[in-house]
Amino acid sequence: MSGRNIRACTAGAAALALAITGIGAATGPASASAAAVYYLDSVNGDDDAAGTSAATAWRTLAKASAAPLAPGSRLLLRRGGSWTGRLSVTRSGTAAAPIVVDVYGSGARPVVKGDTESCVHLAGNHIELYNLQIGVNQDAGRCSWAAVKVTGDDNVVEKNHITGAAAGVFIEPAARYTAVTNNDFVDNNHMSTLTPTDVNDNDDSGAFAVLVQGDDSNIGWNRISGSIAFSYDYEWDGAAVEIFLGSRNHIHHNIAVDNDTFTELGTSTNADGTTNDPDGTSGNVFEYNAVYGPKTRAGLITRGPRDDGGPVDPNGPVLGTVFRNNSVHLTHPDAEGVVCYAGCANAHLSMAQNVVSAAKKSGYADPGFTDNHHNVFWGGLFQMPAGRDNVHRDPLFDPARPLRLRAGSPAIGLGVTGYAETDLDGVSVGSDGGIEAGAYEYVPAG
Known about the structure:
By secondary structure, the chain is mostly beta strands. Helices cover 1% and strands 38% of the residues.
């Protein structure tokens, strides 16, 4: 599934519509000059050359960032090359003729690394970024805040290898309709803030594969691992997908392994209850994700406004989160599958057709939360209102095929609604005559 210019939104918290507004190739009605192709070669390039062929390639990111890109233009980085600094794309394409950043030649992915703010900045609209390695997983040369920062609308980050950052992809609050699809996020394990507890005991932050502060993003079919780092405040910290201030984002069909947390959601609220997030954090949908690995300590963490009689939660309330058809298997002794606190109620979370197995707690929620049904829970304590049609039994995951189901699993046929066309393996939902709980339809091992 391509993420090219897919606008994702939720109609309420339970329904999601995808409207494809463009395609990845420069097939629009751009003129010959508007559709110019520019080349970048870190070894043999020359910034005084024309830049319009492999033989006349430019050399530096500064020259590429100043390129007169127009709708339909392409900027191509030579494979095997390496650049230190920032590639900024400030101009905009259109839905029919996006600006495309891609590669040419043969060999290893071109590497962009070593900027303290963002190694790649997508500041314009309708820009598509493909096939780069962005960052390195070491102190020297890492993208020490974001590997990719997105501030424009309708941008695509696809088929890249992103590593070593505090935020692999950072979607800023003003950005809308960002597609982050089919990327490899590996060891985005840098902490942007890390201070001893005697200085500040609640400020450590970082190790995010994707940090979402914008709205209407499509985050799917990614492989995310190693978003975890030491924290003075929390022992360990990090998340595969962190949503803070963002709304109506669709997080689906991702494989997340050995990240400290799969997702945590929050907003910004003052002690008097006034908000710093005028449009709130709401309507985020998670479906058909697989979450596992011995280092992972939490699946989903969200919250209401405040504990009964307690102070305002500074990161609540988060409204209308939907969590359905996910498979979570956490063996860490401190692992908790789904947590919804601070006055959590049905307005804050809906759970359906998940398989959640966690060593310490499979689920925790406050008494006001009852919107959980047709789930399989297993493992440690279950501290959540009973809901309906849930099953508390071993899900019978196949040890040879992570999180796939073995014959006799209680997840087989437990579902009642097909929320997506295909599961995480691309198998048609309901193809065996029933709908499974979890991210995978039942397919016998063979």
